[in-house]
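#struct-help
A.M.: can someone run this one for me? Single chain, 531 residues.
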Amino acid sequence: MGVELNQRLFSAADSLRSKMDASEYKNYLLGLIFYKYLSDNLLDKLVDLSGESRTEYDTIEKQTALYRELLSDEETKDDLIATLVDTLGYDIEPDYLFNILAKQAKQNTFQLKDLRHGFLQLSTKYDQFNGLFDDVDLESKKLGSDDQQRNITITEVLKKLNDIDVLGHEGDVIGDAYEYLIGEFASEAGKKAGEFYTPHMVSDMMAQIVALGQEAKNLFSVFDPTMGSGSLMLNVRHYLNNPETVKYHGQELNTTTYNLAKMNLILHGVDKEDMRLRNGDTLNKDWPSDEPYTFDSVVMNPPYSAKWSADDTFLDDSRFNRYGKLAPKSKADFAFLLHGYYHLKDTGTMAIVLPHGVLFRGAAEGVIRKKLLEDGSIYAVIGMPANLFFGTSIPTTVIVLKKNRKTRDVLFIDASNDFVKGKNQNKLSKENIDCIIAAYKERKTIEKYAYLASFEDIENNEYNLNIPRYVDTFEEEELVDMVNVGQEIKKIREEKKQLETSLFEAISSLQVKPEDQEWLKAALEVFKHDE
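D.P.: on it. C-alpha cells below:
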C-alpha cells in the first residue's frame, strides 16, 4: 500500500515540480489528499448511516448515487445532513465531492471554481476547517498564467491523486505522504523541509516511553508545544487502553504546519472538542495559561539550537525562574525543554529530542542542567543514531524527564550504533526500538549499551551528561596470532617462488628472433633467482 501511495504522489508531484519548489507543491498535494479523505470518508460513513448493505454499495460511484438519491427526498434531506454533521463534523455537497471533481478532470470538464467552492464551504461552515486550505492557493500564478492554465495543472493533479485509497491505507496517510514527500524532495525544498517532522519510529519510541505506567488512565492528556505535523501526539494513543479519551493540546509557530497538524488530527478521527491547538510562538508567551495547563505526557521535537530573545524579563517567568539562568540567545534548546517540563503533571512523563550539545555545554546551559539534575528531573538520556532526521545529519538525544522522584539517578542508553542504513536517511527497525524500550524498562546497567548512573557518578563528572562518560562501547581489538601470520607469510613466499620459477622456465623456452634477444634477456632477469 505504501508503494502505491508513493508512486501516485511522485506522479502528482511531477505535474507541479517544474512550476514551484518542493515546499510549495507539498502543500497542494497534502491539502488535496486531505480533501479527498473528507470526501471519501463521508461517502463511506453514509452507507452505514443509511442502513444499506456495504456489499451492494461497494464502489464510490454507487455511494455517490445513494447520496444524491437520499438528498433528493426533501422530507429527510435536512435530517441526513444533520446526522452527517453530528457524526463527522461536516458535510460536502455531492457536486463538490472529490471523486466528482476527479471524474470531470478525466473528461477535461473540470472547473477550478468548483474546487474553490468546495474549500470555501468547508472553511466557512465549520470552524475546524477555517484557514485549512489557505496553502492550496488556486489563484497562484505558479500554477499557470491564467485560469485556463491553472485549470489544466490542477486537472492533472486530481487525475493522479484520485486512485489513492485514502481510507484503506494502513497507517497514517497524511503522515506517510508527508514523510515520503520531504524524503524524496527535501533536497529541492532545502534544509527547512523536514524541520517539523519526527520520523515515525522515533515518534513511536517516544510515545511508548511517555505512556509507560499510565496506560490504564481513563482520561489522558498529551501536550506538544512544537507540534509540527502532530504525529508525535497522535502516536501516544497506540499505547493506551482508552485511546478514544485522549485530549490533544499543541502549539505551532508556522501557520502552514499548524494547518497540517489540524488536518492530521481530523483525519485520525479526533473530535474538535478533544483538540486544543494554537498557532503561536511557544517561548515568547506561555500557553496554555488556564486550566488545564499541566499534562500526563509532554512530547517535543523542537527546532535545534534555534535563536530566541532570552530577554531578562523571562527571569521572572514561572517557566524559567527556578533555574538561575536563561538559555542563551543563540541556543533555545533548554528554553524549549523547561517550557515543556513546566507543563508536565507531577505524575507524568516528558520526552524531548535535542542535539547532543545540551548534555555537555557549559555556561548558562551548564547551570540549568545542574539544577535539573539536583532536582532529580532527568530520568533517562538516550543516544540516537546520526542522520535519522530530515534536513540534519547530526546525532540526537532523547531526554526523558519526570517530577517528584525519590532518587536522582539517571539511566543512560547508547543506541547510536543500532540502525538500518538507508539511501538518504538512517532508519530505526522495530528490533532497535524494542531494545531501547526493554533497557528503559529494565533500568539496569547493560554492558556496552546502558548504564544506571548514581547522582554521585554525575557529580564526579561535573554534571556533564556526555554519554561516552557513562556507557563504554570501546571494543578491544583481538590480539593478532603472530605464529599463524608468520606461517601464512612463509607459505605465500614459497608459492611466489614456485610461480616465478615456472615463469622463468616458460620464458627460457621461448624461441625469439635475433632482434628480440634484448627483450628476452630483460624478461629472464626479472624472474631469475639467485641461489
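A.M.: thanks! The longest strand covers residues 344-355.
D.P.: also worth noting: The CA atoms of residues 407 and 449 lie 22 Å apart.
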